[in-house]
Amino acid sequence: MNTGKQLSDYEEVLLPKDIMEILHISRSTVYKLLDTGEIKSIRVGNAYRIPKRNLTAFMFPESKDLSSASESTRIDMKKGGSE
């Protein structure tokens, strides 16, 4: 399914269905990538939430070093969750 959307058209926090659309992969493949940590995610109850920057880090691992420049502006999304 080609939605005609670009990555910039999506919200900053993605859902598994968004990952399916963006990468053109099956639901089971998305959950395998999330379960193994290949795509870093946040669990909210039983649901996954994926910051867009984590998807781009998965898609473009060579640009991972460039993301350190904005490290101080990142919000620790794990705070406030159950620990």
UniProtKB/TrEMBL annotation:
Helix-turn-helix domain ranges (all copies): 16-59
Pfam families assigned to the protein according to its UniProt record, in alphabetical order: HTH_17
GO molecular function, one term: DNA binding
InterPro entries on file: HTH_17 (IPR041657), SinI_DNA-bd (IPR010093)
Record protein name field: Helix-turn-helix domain-containing protein
Organism, scientific name: Porcincola intestinalis
Taxonomic lineage of the native organism: Bacteria, Bacillati, Bacillota, Clostridia, Lachnospirales
